[in-house]
Specification:
The complex is a heterodimer of chains A (227) and B (104). Chain A has 227 residues and is mainly α. Chain A contains 12 helices and no strands. In chain A, 74% of the residues lie in helices and 0% in strands. Classes of the chains: A mainly alpha (227), B mainly alpha (104).
């Protein structure tokens, strides 16, 4: 039997663990050329890690604002799909629905949907969302201030940290054959595009890998129900 | 477009995407192909960002430097199931140490 106490413990540990890497986002963001307040705005208002890393990654590699917006927005589409799933057990209206939408991210969705009852699912979703929100924003501010004080980001290896962050975000998603094929095609498309396109555009061209794999015929037996 | 405008537009799009999931009828996004494509979007984008962040140089050049070694170290750490924050820290330390030793 899962108890409310166990859900609470799960939620807060996920919140602290996830929130802690806000420090790397904060430092990388100022290293990419955003100021402390722009960095803080991304964490409070955008509040979806993958998109935030993508946004500052595109800006940091010299990309235009529009390319950064496009990359961040495409990475955020999954949150819309999470919303469909959590809305089923949340059943909220009005201002609480707006708050629920803002807290709809990987971690709150996962901790929510794995619980056995709707009551525990609601608790898991809200507690995890609030915990991540608190720690992610606190650590973002800390990282931005530290990053600002450090001077040349290359000396501290922050460009190596950014590359490591992207591969760490990618890693857990590589479990299926579809995912491996998509990643391989995306890498190839990027290498082919980088020398011929303005910064930021290769990442958008790589989206064709997802479209291609998604449209590829596949036997029904492989049909998965993963979110 | 100033950087601030880009930040705020991107934040607005992110929020509206989240909200859309809570308010649109489920049937809109339930097509099998739509689901497969949207499931693969983060994989394509993140794989591409790894390449750009690791090998991208000035003026569209491909450069192999300390960042490439940092990513290899990060990948080894991931195989060994290191947590996210440790992987990022190892990436930074690797690149910083190589630069301190004089290897770009």
């Amino acid at each position: 039997m899962t108890t409310a106490r166990q859900v609470s413990r799960q939620s807060w540990s996920v919140g602290i663990a996830t929130g802690a890497y806000g420090i790397s986002f904060g430092a990388l963001s100022v290293a990419s050329g955003l100021d402390v307040w722009q960095t803080v705005a991304l964490s409070t208002l955008m509040f979806t890690g993958g998109s935030q890393f993508a946004f500052v990654g595109v800006i940091g590699s010299g990309g235009a604002g529009l390319a950064a917006i496009a990359a961040a927005s495409l990475l955020g589409i999954r949150n819309g799909l999470y919303g469909l799933q959590v809305a089923r057990f949340l059943d909220v209206r009005g201002p609480r629905r707006l708050a629920a939408a803002q807290l709809t991210i990987d971690e709150s969705t996962v901790v929510g949907i794995v619980q056995p009852t709707d009551e525990l699912r609601r608790q898991g979703f809200w507690t995890t969302g609030i915990a991540v929100y608190i720690f992610w924003n606190a650590f973002t501010l800390l990282g931005a201030i530290l990053g600002n004080a450090m001077g040349d980001p290359r000396r501290w290896g922050l460009d190596g940290a950014a590359a490591a962050a992207f591969i760490a975000l990618l890693w857990p998603r590589l479990r299926s054959r579809d995912a491996a094929a998509t990643a391989t095609a995306a890498v190839a498309l990027t290498l082919l595009t980088v020398p011929h396109a303005p910064p930021g555009i290769p990442v958008l061209v790589a989206v064709l890998a997802a479209v291609g794999v998604g449209l590829w015929p596949r036997r029904a037996a492989h049909e998965g129900a993963t979110p | 477009m100033t950087l601030w405008v880009a930040v705020l537009i991107a934040c607005a799009v992110a929020f509206l995407t989240k909200l859309a999931g809570h308010v649109v009828p489920e049937a809109w996004l339930s097509g099998r192909r739509t689901r497969r494509i949207t499931a693969m979007l983060p994989v394509a984008l993140l794989a591409s960002l790894v390449v750009v962040q690791t090998l991208g140089g000035p003026g569209g050049s491909i450069v192999v430097d300390a960042r490439a070694v940092a990513v290899v170290v990060a990948a080894i750490a991931l195989v060994l199931r290191a947590p996210f924050i440790a992987v990022v820290a190892l990436g930074a330390i690797t690149a910083a140490v190589l630069r301190a030793l004089g290897w770009s």
